[in-house]
Specification:
Helix content is 48%, strand content 0%. It is mainly α. InterPro entries: MADF-dom (IPR006578).
Length: 245
């Protein structure tokens, strides 16, 4: 399992969402245990153990990211449903969510009293695996920052920033930058690639990040000048040969 994505077969994702529903301390702000760190910590442990039955390499951070990804996707569809419902002249004109798990996860809107919407029937393709098509987070996502650090261990609130924001940044942000980054729309595959590259760059040490950015820019320059070929490659000098000379 990669650091950027968590991909589950649909049957696992169904269990994942149903377990999440059974753990209101993770999503229901009216739940008495919602503000109790240990309760939330134990809840994430249960969800991690569930996923580890499918993929032993799954970590708590993967679980937190998956939760935020699912919530963001469903909320975006929810907003579209509500907006179309306000404009529709009849029920047939109401927007139908594209997410097969929309109804399954709609319990997160229980305090908003959402009207039900039909979810599409899963295709054979979605039956095989669930891709993180929506890797963006909205301003109403649950904040797990008071509970965990990047390794999934419990920490104090001042030590980390919001987990949902860290999925895009992986480093502490100022309040101003958080506001600016509350919601970022992924327009096409190139935006998704950019987010993926940015996430990897933010994991790197400063010196490695600078070098990686330089090489990326060099490749783009070569591409813009039509100089790239199928044999283009990065050549790293052999230090032993250099010493021999």
């Amino acid at each position: 399992m990669s650091e950027e994505n968590v991909v589950f077969p649909q049957k696992i994702l169904k269990k994942f969402i149903l377990l999440y529903k059974d753990l209101p301390c993770l999503w229901d702000k009216e739940c008495p245990a919602y503000k109790i760190k240990m309760k939330r910590h134990d809840a994430i442990t249960k969800m991690t153990e569930l996923v580890q039955e499918y993929d032993p390499s799954a970590t708590r951070v993967h679980i937190l990211r998956k939760i935020e990804s699912l919530r963001a996707c469903v909320r975006r569809e929810y907003k579209r449903v509500q907006e179309s419902r306000r404009k529709a002249n009849c029920e047939e004109e109401v927007y139908v969510p594209n997410l097969w798990y929309y109804d399954l996860l709609s319990f997160i809107f229980k305090n908003e009293a959402p009207e039900p919407a039909r979810s599409p029937i899963p295709t054979a393709e979605t039956e095989e695996e669930e891709d993180d098509d929506c890797q963006v987070f909205d301003s109403q996502s649950v904040d797990y920052s008071n509970d965990f650090n990047e390794t999934g261990n419990m920490v104090e609130a001042d030590d980390v920033s919001t987990i949902s924001k860290r999925y895009l940044t992986f480093e502490p942000e100022s309040t101003t930058s958080k506001v600016k980054r509350q919601f970022t729309e992924v327009e096409d595959e190139y935006d998704a690639i950019g987010i993926n590259v940015a996430a990897k760059l933010r994991y790197l040490p400063n010196n490695m990040r600078v070098l990686a950015e330089k090489l990326i820019n060099d490749v783009l320059f070569q591409a813009q000048t039509n100089s790239l070929t199928s044999t283009t490659a990065i050549m790293t000098p052999d230090p032993f040969k250099s010493d021999a000379n």
